[in-house]
Amino acid sequence: MLVSDVKYIKDYVIEVTLRTGEVKRYDLKKWLFSDINPILYKFRKLNHFKKVRVENGIIVWGDDEMDFTPDHMVEMEVNHKEKIPRDNKFSRLLKEGRKSQLLSPLQAKNQLKRRGINV
Question: What is 23-88 written as a DSSP string?
Answer without folding.
Answer: EEEEE-HHHHHH---GGGGGGGSHHHHT--EEETTEEEETTTTEEE-GGGGGGGEE---SPPP-S-
